[in-house]
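Posting for a labmate who doesn't have an account.
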Amino acid sequence: MKKRFNLSGKLRWLIAVLIILVVAGGGTFYYTNSTKASAPTETPLQTTTATRGNIVLYANGTGTLAAAKTASFGFATSGQITELDVKIGDTVKAGQVIGKMDDTEVKAAYDQAKRTLGDLTTPGAANARIGASRGRHESFR
């Protein structure tokens, strides 16, 4: 004679819930342990002894450099520069002479104007002009 286990309805539900909990717990345990194993391992720390020395930094790149402050300047006339008293990157002050131009043509023009003024302002030149203007006035009469 075989004995049958006669389980009540509440006991069946309790066993079913226990089986579900055991299966869910086993699945959770497996999932958490398998993801930890597949995660990348940390690299070991590297250590060294501290020493004194210089830190050297290098940088390179491409692009356009722009000066923080710029100024435009020019000469009143055009010509050849004969002397340049500053170099690229030098700091200059207001009123500082930074260069000289060839002034031979300007000096020649100044000397000519000075001679012409002298010719016009001498007493003999003034009398000649007065006489010439009288002659022109008389011819119109």
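Reply:
Got it, the structure tokens are right above this. Strands lie at 81-84, 99-101.
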